[in-house]
Amino acid sequence: MSSLFKIGTINNISRVGLKRFPQNLYQIDALDNGMKDPIAIMLRSHKLQNDQVNNTVSAIARCGAGTNNIPIDKMSARGIPVFNTPGANANSVKELVLCSLFLSARNITGAINHIQDLTESKGFEFAGGRVEKDKKLFAGTEIKGKTLGVIGLGSIGSQVAMAGASLGMKVIGYDPQLTVDSAWNLDGEKVKRVDEIESCLSSSDYVSLHVPVIKGVTENLLDSNMINIMKPNSSLLNFSRGELVDHSALLEAMKSGNFTG
Question: What is the pTM of this model?
Answer without folding.
Answer: 0.80
